[in-house]
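One-letter codes give the sequence; the fold follows as tokens. An example follows:
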Amino acid sequence: MRPFDDATRRNIANACAAFMRLPAGEVPTTLKRAAVAVALTASEDDDTAFLLTLRASHLRAHRGQWALPGGRCDAGETPVEAALRELDEELGLRLTGAQVLGTLDDYPTRSGYLITPVVVWAADSAAIRPNPDEVASVHRIALDTIERDDAFDFVAIPESARRVIRFHHQESLIHAPTAALIYQFREVLAGRQTRVTELEQPVFAWK
């Protein structure tokens, strides 16, 4: 258990600081930049949780899918700025750079994006107001959920030599990129330098 308090915030910030991101040259530069937020907040039991959204069913892209809050970077915008803006637009959470605990590896997607995960501390969880234009629902996933031995699995598909990662959430299977980013965050919390850029997405997410 990780209570949602200052000690947990410091421990996670230290874990993020100890994580060595892949150099920028390790991934293609032709991909469009995007960012997501691993937004840490209090669970219903006052443990530390992260926010996971179910995308609205009327969206043009990836509708009805599980996702971390985020989206494409605007022109001249850094990934951190984009993640904070998207948190505000999707969930009504207005955070500043002071709440940023760190960033994880950039993840290249089959659909042409390079996603930067930004870990943030969202203390005022009462401020969460999902934007119905983008978000169908928002869920608090306790960190001990992703630390279970059976939280993730890896499967083979005939279309790729790379392993497909899956996160088991209740009755749902959540795939990469979201599953890959959550998995790396789990590994960072454990002090492991685990890479996820080679973890595959299911074929339906390649477009």
Summary: The chain has four helices and eleven strands. The CA atoms of residues 166 and 175 lie 5 Å apart. The first strand starts at residue 32 and ends at 42. The chain has a mean pLDDT of 91.
